[in-house]
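Continuing the series of single-chain predictions for the mutant panel. This is the parent chain; the variants come on the following pages.
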Amino acid sequence: MRGAVILQQGYCIRLRWKDTSRAFTNIMKTPYRKYIHNSVLPILLLLLLACTLAACGYMRNVFIRGMVTDISGQALPGVVVRVTGTEFGALTNALGRYSLGAAPGHLQLEFMKTGYTPVRTAITVDTIGIVEAAPVALWPLPMGEGVYLFQNYRYYQTTYPRPNRYKVEEQGGVAVGTPVCPELRIHWEDPEYESDRNPPVLIGHKMPAYDARMNKMRRVNAALIHEASRSRTSTENAGNIQYHEEIWIADQPVPLRSRILDEAERLLVELRPIQALEPGVYAIHWGALEGYDSIEPRIFLFEIEAPPEDVEGEDAGEGENDEGEETPS
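Parent structure:
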């Protein structure tokens, strides 16, 4: 064994036995060598041993404890918790609790679990012992990219067609729209009593975090503009157009607020209307309804259903759409 290594606050000090023995030999040549040999020397050796053991264990004399849940408050087991840049790590138990060793200082904790957004939090540890970290909540991820209604801690997917250019009968001009009707139907809630549901919470997964727009849609008669017909003059086309298709086009703009939900990876963006929504069909888009499809070529449709007029109709149709499928309520 050539020497001893002492670790303290990230520094490495190597003590060579040759230098140490030479120092003790010089001490023993003093007139007080008998006193040193009998009394002081054992104490010095014990102090050296204690300092070595303490320094070697210094890097793990802090334990960080905490809890991880999902956003509904349910404990999340199996979450990987790591101190960034180190090999210190742990897994949360069945109660969502974790405990891991670390060194004092300014640390960053990483929380990762498949199917959830990763989270990074900063923590400053300046004491030795057990440190209780703030609770962490992870957002669940939907199955694929797109825009979803988030209600009762569940995701409901919107309908996402790609719009086309149409010749519109009533205005005699060109508009961008789609004949596809939304499959997601949301029961209208009175915002005076259900402000947490109207306006609804819409979340984009892997969607642009900027320039999102929202429009209330209206139904019009239109004719699809084919590429071949674009080369003809408007006079030639005017007598041949048949407005036999009903489509949805943008009508009233709805103010929309965007907010990143996970700063670590920016996977989720909240897209929430600023005002309560009235019954009707709505679309979220990134310029596609205005003819700009460079950011996102699709539109994302959903419908706010009007409240039933009678109790019998409400009881008969509650929780089901026209196809008998369950819808948010």
